[in-house]
């Protein structure tokens, strides 16, 4: 009986050691698996980062941002009180500004360049784009509502009342142009949000392999954005991720003022040149 107990203890000990060894192997394998998974994730991240950098280098060489030509409301702001913002048209001077800008860009841009143009649906921006198309080789034109001007409200009736108009302007100054929301309209932040969304779409379009086929250096791809004063400012403001405090001091571009951004060696856009329409009557 003593022998039997001894054998049982010996067998139990052996079973315990086998079980302990199995558990140890299990944890070793689990740790090895986790390490391999981490290495794979790290490798995937590095590959993805490299691909991202390659995509950036293949983006269009130039990004051109411009404001529409002079509009009816630029001459008389009260036009907003009886004509819908989206229906306001260019003046004759505005059409001349767009034509002059088209001539300038035609000389600056290589004739073999393939241009993708993004346009606000508001009539004054559409008219500006149509005039520019007479001078540029626009391969693809996309009308994007996110590029519409900041909405100051349906038929800005507050402008008809001097006291109410002064109140709105004072409140806007107090709150700041970025945060003040117009009645039945939107705040600068609302416009900022849709501009942010537009940038995401723009980069997807830039990085679309179908747009990059046979264009390894992208020297012949140019993106043009035709929008409005506030939106043009917000586009640059958002891209640079500028401090909110600086927004109110950022000057509004003049009619048909054009900002040319150029792709640098790191795949980022830097300010390259500015075109201002002067001496046109």
From TrEMBL:
<dbReference type="InterPro" id="IPR001345">
    <property type="entry name" value="PG/BPGM_mutase_AS"/>
</dbReference>
<feature type="active site" description="Proton donor/acceptor">
    <location>
        <position position="149"/>
    </location>
</feature>
<dbReference type="InterPro" id="IPR052765">
    <property type="entry name" value="PGM-Related"/>
</dbReference>
<feature type="binding site">
    <location>
        <position position="162"/>
    </location>
    <ligand>
        <name>substrate</name>
    </ligand>
</feature>
<dbReference type="InterPro" id="IPR013078">
    <property type="entry name" value="His_Pase_superF_clade-1"/>
</dbReference>
<feature type="binding site">
    <location>
        <begin position="67"/>
        <end position="74"/>
    </location>
    <ligand>
        <name>substrate</name>
    </ligand>
</feature>
<protein>
    <submittedName>
        <fullName>Histidine phosphatase family (Branch protein 1)</fullName>
    </submittedName>
</protein>
<dbReference type="GO" id="GO:0003824">
    <property type="term" value="F:catalytic activity"/>
</dbReference>
<feature type="active site" description="Tele-phosphohistidine intermediate">
    <location>
        <position position="68"/>
    </location>
</feature>
<dbReference type="InterPro" id="IPR029033">
    <property type="entry name" value="His_PPase_superfam"/>
</dbReference>
<feature type="binding site">
    <location>
        <position position="124"/>
    </location>
    <ligand>
        <name>substrate</name>
    </ligand>
</feature>
<dbReference type="Pfam" id="PF00300">
    <property type="entry name" value="His_Phos_1"/>
</dbReference>
């Amino acid at each position: 009986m003593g022998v039997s107990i001894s054998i049982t203890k010996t067998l139990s000990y052996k079973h315990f050691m086998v079980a302990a060894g199995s558990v140890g192997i299990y944890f070793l394998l689990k740790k090895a698996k986790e390490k391999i998974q981490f290495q794979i994730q790290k490798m995937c991240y590095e590959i993805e980062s490299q691909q991202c950098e390659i995509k950036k280098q293949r983006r269009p060489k130039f990004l051109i941002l411009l404001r529409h030509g002079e509009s009816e409301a630029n001459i008389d702001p009260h036009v907003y009180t009886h004509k819908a913002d989206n229906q306001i048209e260019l003046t004759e001077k505005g059409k001349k500004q767009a034509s002059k800008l088209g001539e300038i860009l035609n000389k600056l841009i290589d004739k073999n360049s393939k241009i993708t143009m993004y346009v606000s649906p508001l009539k004054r921006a559409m008219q500006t784009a149509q005039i520019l198309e007479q001078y540029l080789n626009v391969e693809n034109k996309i009308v994007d509502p996110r590029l519409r001007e900041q909405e100051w409200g349906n038929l800005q009736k507050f402008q008809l009342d001097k006291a109410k108009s002064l109140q709105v302007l004072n409140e806007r100054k107090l709150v700041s142009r970025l945060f003040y929301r117009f009645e039945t309209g939107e705040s600068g932040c609302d416009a900022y949000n849709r501009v942010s969304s537009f940038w995401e779409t723009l980069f997807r379009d830039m990085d679309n392999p179908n747009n990059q086929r046979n264009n390894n250096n992208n020297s012949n791809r140019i993106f043009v954005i035709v929008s409005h004063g506030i939106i043009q400012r917000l586009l640059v403001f958002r891209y640079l991720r500028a401090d909110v405090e600086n927004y109110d001091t950022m000057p509004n571009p003049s009619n048909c003022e054009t900002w040319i951004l150029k792709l640098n060696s790191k795949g980022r856009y830097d300010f390259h040149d500015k075109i201002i329409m002067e001496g046109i009557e």
